[in-house]
Amino acid sequence: MSASSKPVAQTWFGPITAVQRRAMFALVPVAVAFGLVVGLAFLPLTSAFGGLAKVGSETVLELPDELVLPPAPESSTLYASDGTTVIATFGDQYRVQLEYDQIPESVIDALLATEDSNFFEHNGVDPEGVMRALVTNVANGGTSEGASTITMQYVRQVLSYTATTPDEVAAASEVTIDRKVKEMGYALALEEEMTKQEILTNYLNTVYFGNGAYGIGAAAQVYYGKVPADLTVAESAMLVGLIQSPSTYDPINGSSEAAQVRRDHVIDRMVDVEALTPAEGDTARAEGLNLNPQDANNTMGGAIDSDYGFFVDYFEQWWNQQEDFGDSDEVRKARLYRGGYEIVSTLDVGLQEAAQDAVEEQKPMGSEFALGSVVVEPGTGGIQVMAVNRNYSNDTSENGPNTSNPEYKGSYPNTTNPLLSGNSAVPGYQAGSSFKMFTMLAALEEGYPLDTTIYSPYQYTSKYVVGDGAASCGNKWCPKNASESEVGNYNMWTGFGESVNTYFVQLAERVGVEKAIGVAERLGIKFRSQEDLNFVTNYPETYGPFVLGVTQTTPLDMAAAYAALPADGVYCPPIPAQSATTLAGETIPFESACDQALSVEVARAAVDAARCPTEYGAAKGNCTWGTAPQVGNAVDGPVAGKTGTTDGNSTNWFVGFTPNAAAAAFIADPDSPQNLVGKGNLGKPANAVADILAAQWEMNGEGDFTPPKELVH
């Protein structure tokens, strides 16, 4: 029967009014009888009666809103900070929403002939189908016949794709009396609320056709590169045939022969119900499959460009931690992938491109050493840049062992490890002297002024007990300065500018290294390494080497920590998004949970000392020379920061900031920490940050550093 012929709807007890139907389903005895029919039809005869008492006591007519107005899964879009540049999409289902008049009659005829030939005669449950299934199942002693109408199948689809947990998905399709009773009750109630055309449209927009295509609009594109209106009868029959088992009849990645057999069966059914004449059926069967496979455009979540991959990965981690989007990771991910959010991120595309260029100029793709940088906005915590000389990809097919290091078996320049943000498997990299900032801040908080002068020898024997090693004198930790010429009286300006180790070790002895650790924690430094966590938790007072940065950290943590300084001591946990707009048009703003981690004067005093390493020059004191003059030379504005080098040059860092941006960069071999970066790579993080902050200042050259009024002399 064609879709244009629509007989008056009948119930399986004959014509009744809507009021009568509601009253009927309100009666428990009828529900019991209904459960009996379902049990006999869908389960073996010997097991059908066991669940009837339980089923009969349940209400089966409470209709979920989503069945009438299904929230069709919509991909979410992640934009750059400009609100227009798409940097990623998140979706697990490719769909093309159609109106009823956009669905060709051949598709509807094929669907009705194959799945529900009495669709326009029943009110959601087909009594003939139920009885036919009953006879077949009793004869076979199983559940080979299901008697599910299109309305019932649609109910099952919606319950499945709106499920947010594996248990809910399983419950939507499990073969039990409970589920079948509810499904049939929903179907009957649904047909009181929706027209037949609406049910068919929603069904054909949501049913899965395989190869990532949900709905007939997507299926026509994936299999034939067409809009549905252009499908031939044979093509419509092939697509409808996939509904029963998309994998079994998959003509692209499975068996084209099986697909053709199934297609011909659908055509035969169309002839049987007189939707086609026998001659039309012969013509359709003579047609080849004529496939024209296309990509499903099934994003599955991910960045538009590899340069955005590490940021997008961090965004998704962050989203899955936001309790406002659900009680579990599964619920939150489902909402991101199916909720149709329009999300404005904090990523500055222009600055990201400049940063990527700056990073790759210092260390190109393919290097065994990873060079990466993160930029965070002071006062908001917005992550503006995540750039590294790696492709965000799991593809290792073209990347065997590095020829310069035959023992290395990694896949660079491809990786999905969070090199810039870290996790339990990627604790980070030793930050070296960039950690001296935390000791200086602790001293300033204790009232030590910037001109605190300490005689600093080339090598100093501290009070901290350590084991045997190169930095051990007896059993005491005795670090050295970078150069034997670094001897004499230093204060915070000169000691920080020249990065004098023995000055800061003595400063920590006066203040207490545990206070420096406390400052670092207030500024968001996370201790992901179990060894680091053990020291800072159990032995903070004796953890002297912390002062010189033996602790592992990440560029994201360091950029966010240093961003508190130009923000007058306000620390903002890094955040990758500004807002999300729902399908209903509601805009949800995102703000970092900022906190006044340092006093204003302490922050301003630290900034004044941090101007020395870049040779920008302090406002309240006299700098000597700085370890990163290239930064001050490159940035046409106020700039401060600190270099960081570890013993043996295993890693190298620079963390710098202007009044409105903080950038951290590192270089290391993340796959083989024993592979030292060497002297030839020292300074490359500072070079990269110099170019990044220069570009940032050119784009947004506003603000200045406010000199301290206290803690100077």
UniProtKB/TrEMBL annotation:
KW Disulfide bond (keyword) present: no
Penicillin-binding protein transpeptidase domain span: 374-691
Keyword check for Cell inner membrane: no
Coiled-coil boundaries: none
InterPro entries noted in UniProt: Beta-lactam/transpept-like (IPR012338), Glyco_trans_51 (IPR001264), Glycosyltr_51/Transpeptidase (IPR050396), Lysozyme-like_dom_sf (IPR023346), PBP_transglycosylase (IPR036950), PCN-bd_Tpept (IPR001460)
TM region(s), chain numbering: 23-45
Residue ranges annotated for the Glycosyl transferase family domain, each copy included: 86-270
Record keywords: Carboxypeptidase, Glycosyltransferase, Hydrolase, Membrane, Multifunctional enzyme, Protease, Transferase, Transmembrane, Transmembrane helix
Reaction catalyzed: Preferential cleavage: (Ac)2-L-Lys-D-Ala-|-D-Ala. Also transpeptidation of peptidyl-alanyl moieties that are N-acyl substituents of D-alanine; [GlcNAc-(1->4)-Mur2Ac(oyl-L-Ala-gamma-D-Glu-L-Lys-D-Ala-D-Ala)](n)-di-trans,octa-cis-undecaprenyl diphosphate + beta-D-GlcNAc-(1->4)-Mur2Ac(oyl-L-Ala-gamma-D-Glu-L-Lys-D-Ala-D-Ala)-di-trans,octa-cis-undecaprenyl diphosphate = [GlcNAc-(1->4)-Mur2Ac(oyl-L-Ala-gamma-D-Glu-L-Lys-D-Ala-D-Ala)](n+1)-di-trans,octa-cis-undecaprenyl diphosphate + di-trans,octa-cis-undecaprenyl diphosphate + H(+)
UniProt xrefs under Gene3D superfamilies: Biosynthetic peptidoglycan transglycosylase-like, DD-peptidase/beta-lactamase superfamily
Protein name: Transglycosylase domain-containing protein
